């Protein structure tokens, strides 16, 4: 089954509903609104909180962490560390997000509304390797389930429950392993649990088998402590949705049930899907039902005003509005005086790291911390690279006399490429490279001097196979392309990102600045091929396309 990245004609929605990296989503309902939270790892601010009126069209309401804690530790990029899979619940008038730091423990933050204000994090449990927490507020009792990261604790493939006090912020019981994946046939890498109660039964929804190849399990018991029986309730089946992975169950305003989960797409990260969900014999049925088999993901749901149904895309469904783009805003005209919520840094920012005066420009002062590897720079201002083919444009002026100072537009993952301006031989020149290399980036843009003080337009275009080409131009001139395309590669537990950066070599002093114009992020359109300079044949053997093997499981 082929999935379209955006809603197609005649569909109420098409999967994925969020076509970029929103890892490990969980969702709850507060009144008439739905609230979604995702992992953020080392990115700051952390814990993005999204809101929707229909489970399809989403916008960013806030970030629950304005800095990643401990603050000083995360002032440098700590790829793969930080905020792992969270859970969100609304209880006693407060939204509560429980999140793990696998190197420190499990924490909770609270707010009266998705927009905040969010409290400072409180440690609920301390310890190495505690991951993927989810609370269950059950009358007078509060329980917390979590998984284990073998990389920190030596334990994995098991789920543990502990009782908390009435506030949900302090453990009062003894932890018990309630589900041992080694005792479940075929179960490996059991993680990402979500805890629920329905009627007389307690349920733990948890994926297994790995993010790129796994399936979704449901565990059921009449006690939170077990014993639990299990059933696979969602798997890839005959679809192209590999490893439908962890997420959350939410009951809509009309009483229908839905399951939000992610799909690992490699370079584009973990995109978000929405599955209809029903119940049969007190077991959840997710996605498209199959006789005698687990459900499989749906491509989307049709819209009908005549009747209610929960059938997949080849039938009708009534609740969703007509198709429309439902992703959070990506473009930014920089007419505000603070960063828009789609942006984040690769580490906690320092004061003065960015200046916005509301005049359509964004200023990044040069910081003398450049070792030649963009992945080591905390001052990369980023957002997710969409899965849909995309064109990104901006303009750049570099005001510096520091030899080696540079700024530009990048696609950043475990490997990266960039195009921009640098001071070379005392002059500002267009340049760019791919990295990280052993002694700095490898050039893949032929250097060319630009008029003093003049801005240069920069462009990148991505394709559905993760290939990205870069180009530049002066004024209204022709676009000049980089010597070769680049294949984006995922980072550590996250997808590739679009980024703006500026830096100067170590020891040079913070002198000068990079001035960026508005950033437009739009669906890719057919455009003229940029002119490529004559050295392509000479360097092509040195710069092959960069392959992107799947990374292993997080734990």
Give the secondary structure arrangement, pairings included.
Layout: E1 11-14, E2 26-30, E3 33-37, E4 46-52, E5 58-65, E6 87-91, E7 94-101, E8 105-111, E9 122-126, E10 130-138, E11 141-148, H1 150-153, E12 158-164, E13 176-180, E14 194-198, E15 201-208, E16 215-221, E17 229-234, E18 245-251, E19 257-264, E20 270-280, E21 283-286, E22 288-290, E23 293-296, E24 300-302, E25 344-345, E26 355-356, E27 362-365, E28 368-370, E29 381-384, E30 390-399, E31 406-412, E32 416-424, E33 427-435, E34 442-443, E35 448-449, E36 456-462, E37 467-474, E38 480-481, E39 486-487, E40 497-505, E41 513-516, E42 520-523, E43 531-532, H2 536-539
Parallel strand pairs: 28-40, 38-43
Antiparallel strand pairs: 1-24, 2-3, 3-4, 4-5, 6-7, 7-8, 8-9, 10-11, 11-12, 12-13, 14-15, 15-16, 16-17, 18-19, 19-20, 20-21, 22-23, 25-29, 26-27, 27-41, 29-40, 30-36, 30-41, 30-42, 31-32, 31-40, 32-33, 33-34, 33-35, 36-37, 37-38, 37-39
**CATH superfamily membership of the largest domain:** Glycosyl hydrolase domain, family 43
Radius of gyration from the alpha-carbon trace, in angstroms: 24 Å
CATH architecture of the largest domain: 5 Propeller
Total strands: 43
Task: Please explain how this structure is put together.
- It is a single chain.
- This protein is an all-beta fold.
- It has two domains: 18-39 and 84-300, Glycosyl hydrolase domain, family 43 (Tachylectin-2, Chain A); 344-539, Jelly Rolls, CATH 2.60.120.200.
- 1% of the residues lie in helices and 43% in strands.
- Strands 26, 27, 30, 36, 37, 38, 39, 41, 42 and 43 form a ten-stranded mixed β-sheet that branches. Strands 25, 28, 29, 31, 32, 33, 34, 35 and 40 form a nine-stranded mixed β-sheet that branches. Strands 2-3-4-5 form a four-stranded antiparallel β-sheet, with no helix packed on it.
- Mean pLDDT is 89; it is low at 1-11, 304-324 and 530-552.
């Amino acid at each position: 089954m082929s999935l379209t990245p955006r809603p197609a004609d005649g569909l109420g929605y098409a999967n994925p509903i969020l076509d970029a990296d929103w890892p490990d989503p969980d969702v709850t309902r507060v009144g008439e609104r739905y609230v979604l939270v995702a992992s953020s790892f080392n990115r700051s601010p952390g814990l993005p909180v999204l809101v929707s009126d229909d489970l399809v069209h989403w916008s960013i309401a806030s970030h629950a962490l304005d800095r990643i804690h401990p603050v000083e530790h995360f002032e440098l990029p700590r790829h793969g560390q930080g905020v792992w899979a969270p859970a969100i619940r609304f209880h006693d008038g407060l939204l509560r997000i429980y999140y793990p730091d696998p190197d420190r423990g499990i924490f909770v933050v609270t707010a009266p509304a998705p927009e905040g204000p969010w409290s400072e994090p409180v440690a609920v449990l301390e310890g190495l390797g505690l991951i993927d927490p989810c609370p269950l507020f059950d009358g007078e009792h509060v329980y917390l389930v979590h998984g284990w990261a073998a990389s920190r604790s030596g334990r994995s493939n098991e789920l543990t429950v502990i009782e908390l006090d009435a506030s949900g912020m302090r453990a009062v019981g003894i932890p018990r392993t309630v589900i041992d994946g080694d005792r479940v046939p075929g179960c490996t890498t059991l993680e990402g649990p979500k805890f629920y109660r329905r009627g007389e039964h307690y349920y733990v929804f948890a994926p297994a088998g790995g993010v790129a190849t796994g399936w979704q399990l449901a565990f059921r018991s009449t006690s939170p402590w077990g014993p639990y029986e299990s059933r696979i309730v969602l798997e890839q089946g005959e679809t192209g949705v590999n490893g439908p992975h962890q997420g959350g169950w939410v009951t809509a305003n009309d009483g229908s049930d839905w399951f939000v989960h992610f799909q690992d797409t490699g370079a584009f990260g973990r995109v978000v899907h929405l599955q209809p969900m029903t119940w049969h014999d007190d077991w959840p049925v997710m996605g498209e039902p199959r006789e005698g088999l687990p459900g499989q993901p749906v491509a989307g749901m049709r819209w009908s005003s005549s009747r209610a149904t929960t059938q997949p895309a080849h039938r009708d469904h009534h609740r969703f509005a007509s198709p429309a783009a439902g992703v959070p805003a990506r473009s930014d005209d920089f007419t505000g005086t603070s960063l828009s919520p789609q942006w984040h840094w690769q580490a906690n920012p320092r004061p003065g790291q960015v200046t916005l005066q509301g005049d359509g420009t964004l200023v990044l002062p040069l910081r003398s911390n450049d070792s030649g590897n963009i992945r080591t720079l905390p001052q990369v201002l980023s957002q997710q690279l969409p899965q849909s083919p995309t064109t990104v444009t901006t303009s750049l002026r570099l005001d510096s006399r520091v030899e080696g100072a540079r700024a530009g537009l990048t696609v950043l993952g475990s490997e990266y490429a960039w195009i921009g301006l640098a001071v070379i031989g005392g002059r500002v020149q267009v340049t760019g490279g791919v990295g990280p290399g052993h002694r700095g980036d490898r050039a893949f843009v032929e250097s060319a001097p630009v008029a003093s003080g003049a801005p240069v337009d920069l462009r990148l275009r991505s394709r559905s196979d993760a290939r990205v080409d870069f180009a530049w131009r002066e004024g209204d001139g022709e676009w000049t392309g980089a010597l070769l395309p680049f294949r984006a590669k995922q980072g550590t537990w996250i997808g590739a990102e679009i980024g703006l950066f500026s830096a100067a070599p170590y020891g040079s002093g913070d002198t000068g600045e990079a001035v960026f114009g508005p950033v437009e992020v739009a669906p890719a359109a057919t455009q003229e091929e940029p002119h490529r300079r004559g050295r392509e044949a000479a360097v092509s053997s040195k710069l092959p396309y960069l392959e992107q093997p799947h990374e292993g499981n997080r734990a």
